[in-house]
Write a structure and sequence with these properties.
This protein is mostly helical and 171 residues long. It has one domain. The protein is built from 6 helices and no strands. α2 packs across α3 and α3 runs antiparallel to α5. The longest helix is centred in the first third of the chain and has 44 residues. One of its GO terms (cellular component) is plasma membrane. Its main location: membrane. This is DoxX family protein. It is a multi-pass membrane protein. Belongs to the DoxX family.
Length: 171
């Protein structure tokens, strides 16, 4: 009986590992693509509110015009989310979206004033208050890191192009 349970567990682990190479990166890419596309689409259809927070942007973005930052952020969110969804240029797209997220966290989500870790921890929330709600951007950063370090996974244009180039070089 123990052998049967062990065999089932081994089979399950093997198949979950195989599926994980396909499903895990794809699910991260789809989740992040949705979130960032929605943010970019909101900027596309919305009014530029960056001038009111321009001074909070970290260097060098605080040196650029607010309208340029708005466009840069919007296009990065729209184009990189599409690239993530299809798995094309995934590592570069993840890096760009990490920069966008860090800038957004510094300018909008980080608590304006804090002197202790308990003050800072109060900002670890999801709210619509502006400053002091950095939980969601932190989730995005953590979700982008596996894509940056391991790539798009097997079900992606990156993998397809890689396999194609490998076959070309083998000839």
């Amino acid at each position: 009986m123990q052998t049967n349970a062990s065999s089932v567990l081994n089979w399950l682990q093997l198949n979950l590992d195989r599926a994980g190479d396909w499903v895990a990166p794809l699910s991260l890419r789809a989740f992040l693509a949705w979130e960032f596309f929605e943010a970019g689409w909101g900027k596309w259809n919305g009014e530029n509110w960056f001038p009111s927070i321009q001074g909070a942007f970290p260097f060098p973005f605080n040196q650029l015009p607010a309208t340029f930052n708005w466009q840069l952020s919007m296009w990065a969110e729209l184009l990189c989310s599409i690239a993530l969804l299809v798995g094309l240029g995934t590592r570069l797209s993840a890096l760009i979206l990490i920069v966008v997220t860090v800038v957004a966290t510094a300018a909008v989500h980080w608590p304006a004033e804090w002197s202790t870790l308990s003050d800072l921890a109060m900002g670890y929330s999801i709210s619509n208050k502006g400053y002091g709600n950095f939980k969601l951007p932190l989730i995005y950063l953590v979700a982008l890191l596996p894509l940056l370090f391991t790539g798009a996974g097997k079900l992606s244009l990156d993998a397809f192009i890689g396999r194609y180039l490998k076959r070309l070089n083998a000839r």
